[in-house]
Structure formats: C-alpha cells, structure tokens
Amino acid sequence: MKLKIIFIYFLLICTALSCSDSDFKNSSEIFNNELDNILKRTFDSATVPGTSMMIKFKDGSVWKKSAGFAFTGSSSEDGVPMNTEMQFRIGSTTKTMIGTAVLILADQKKLNLSDNVEKILPGVIKYGNSITIESLLNHTSRLINYTNLEEFADIYLDNPTYPWTRNEIVDLFKDSPLIDFQAENESFYSNSNYYLLGMIIEKVSGMTLQNFMETFIFKPLKMNDTYIPASNFLTGNFADGYIDLNVNGYFEPEEKITSQNPDAIWSAGSAVSTLLDLSIWLDELMNGNLISSELQKKRMDFNCHVYGAPEEVLYSLGLMNQFGQIGHTGAVAGYTTIMFNYKGNSIIAFTNGYYLSPEEPDVPGLLLEAVVEMIDKD
User: Fold this and answer.
1) Using an 8 Å Cβ cutoff, are 53 and 349 in contact?
2) Count of H-run helices and E-run strands, the chain
3) What does each C-alpha distance from 83 to 68, 71, 374 come to in angstroms?
4) Rounded CA gap, 236 and 226, in Å?
5) What is the H or E stretch that residue 3 is in?
6) Is residue 57 within 8 Å of 27, Cβ to Cβ?
C-alpha cells in the first residue's frame, strides 16, 4: 500500500510540473537566440559578402544559419542569399583529409610513416633523404612554405587560373635550404609538406588524388558534396569567393576569385565541401573509423608545438589542437573556414570573403571564439 501511495504521489508531482519529453529542450533550442545574436553581430562587424555556421551539439541537435550573400551583384538587389547547403573551398582544412589518406595507405602497408621522401619520390627534392612522411604530416620537415614566396603569391593573386603545373610548384621549394630556426619537434606550418603528400598518395596508390579521396573517404562516409577539383571551375551549388585585392576593406563584384587553377594549392588546400559534410568529417576525425586504432591514437597525440603560436596550439598528423579545440582552420583566396570539435560539440563556419590585410576581422575565427565562450559558460 505504501509503495502504491508513493507511486501515485510521484505521478501527481510530474503532472503538476508538466513532466513530459516535449518540455525538455535540446541544446539547439536552448542556445538558438544566443547563436542568432553571435552570427548577426559577428557578420555585422565585417564587410564579407556572406557567412554560414553550423553547430552540432553533443546531444545530437543541430543549429545552422547563414547571413549575407553567396554572390554579390552590382547592387544588393542582384545578390544571391547565402544558405547553409552551399559548397565552398575549405582551404587548409583539406589537410585533415590528406593526412587521413596517408594513414589509410599506412594501414594498407603501402607505406610507412618512417619512409623518407627520397624512397617514394626519388630526385624530387634536394633533402628527400632526411625528410620522412611523418615529418611532412606534422610539419616538422623544415621545408619552406612555397605559398609565402613572392614568385608564387604575386602570380596566384594576379591570375588565379594561371596554368601552374605540379613540377613548377615543386620547383619553387625543392632546392631551398631547410629552415634553421625551428626548434626540435616543432611544427613550422608549410604547404610544401602537403603538396608532396599529394604526390606520395598518387605514387603509392596508383590512383589520382581525386579518385583516391572519393574511393576511400568521401563515398564511404557519404560526403556527397565534397571533392578535390580537377579543373579551374567549381560545380554544384557553391558560394562565390571574393578577395579584398585593393585592401580597402570591401568586396566588389570584380574581386570574385571563385575559379582557380586546381594545381596551385592542390593537396595543400583545394577541397570543396559543405557544412554538413564537414560535420560528418569531423565526427570521423574524432572517432577514427577509417583507420586503425593504433594510428588513431597516434593522430590524437598532439606533441608538436606550432612555431609562432601560443604554447597551447599543437599539431599532430594533419590535425590541430588549439586550446582544447580539435580540428583545423582553412584559408584560401576567396574563403576562410574553421572546423573544430570542442567538448563534444562540432563547430563549423565559413565566409566567402578573404581579407589580405591581417588587421581586418577573421569572421570564422570570431564565431569560433564566441561559440566556445558560450559553451564554457553553460
């Protein structure tokens, strides 16, 4: 009898408090207004054409919204609104994919991370005997960064569809002395490392980079809107990219830079994706279903400090850990991207405007900072 009375009393309390599943809000509902405000104030603080952000909370709920335009015409009436389904160039976020491709090949016993470059690409670079695949992955190779060289940057910005060949790109850095100011086991971020990794993937697999990534990564994960471009032009439902060439802080229709030679940046940062696909990809990076548990453990061992960054910014095998945020940033002419997992929450954002001046706001970075602060105070 006492148990029955207690049970009835419990039911009465639940009824009085409207205790039903429909009364419990998920994270995307709880934070909706705050995220709306974060997106609005961050976008309003800049002049980029458009931006999109997606948060996949650890409870599985999703928030995603856009602001601004994917294409700017001669007036605001001509513009096409940005939306969260659009594709965009993800820049160096590509490195997380290239790094995974190399680890897949290691699992397939087609290469070892301790192999040197000379063994796989004989005669391609001067110091190939002293540079291992692992040192390319974690940026400890001491190779210069070819995209920082004037002979590349001047052409790339002036004529983004300039017909670079891969040999021309490698010629920019193949004979250069190795960097001598880098501490032992310290990452000096260099796009040259990942350009060589793209060549290694093709050499070892016998496939084009596009086909390898499609076969072993994009198709298995159903990342249907992600690809490595094989031509100057993007396909699908994409947002145009713009660059502030005249450094006046604004983006004009004639500053569109969507079309680019695919070999200019290639395996260092040319992939195209969407917010949804990057959320799928970030889950994979955290779980490591495509690679062995041994290599996943090694990938999550962040033991290389990034040169010039705060001591809390670390690099592993194609993956970054900055202040407990695991993922990668991406910047390529016309677009900037962030993709990070923080405390089990996925945070992905991009904008289709690229400032040349470092004094201008980094919109995806500011969005990341604000969302992390929101999560921490909850």
Assistant:
1) yes
2) 14, 14
3) 9, 11, 24
4) 10
5) helix 2-16
6) yes
Are the C-beta atoms of 304 and 141 separated by less than 8 Å? no
- Residue 351 domain-assigned? yes
Residue 45 lies in a domain: yes
* 14 within domain boundaries: no
Give pLDDT tens digits for 88-122.
Answer: 999 999 999 999 999 999 999 999 999 999 999 99
**Beta partners for residue 242, in sequence order:** 256, 353
Inside any domain, residue 298 = yes
Rounded-to-integer distance, Cα 329 and Cα 349, Å: 10
| Number of domains composing the chain | 1
Extract the runs of DSSP E, i.e. beta strands, from 249-334. Answer: 272-273, 304-306, 313-315, 320-322, 325-332
* The one-letter amino acid at 119: K
Q: According to the model, what pLDDT value does residue 77 have?
A: 58
Distance in angstroms (rounded) separating the CA atoms of residues 3 and 115 = 70
The CATH number of the domain where 236 resides is what?
Answer: 3.40.710.10
Which amino acid appears at position 301 of this protein? D
pLDDT, tens digit (0-9, with 9 covering 90-100), for 193-216: 999 999 999 999 999 999 999 999
| Structural domain boundaries, residue 93 | 29-377
Other beta carbons within 10 Å of 170: 18
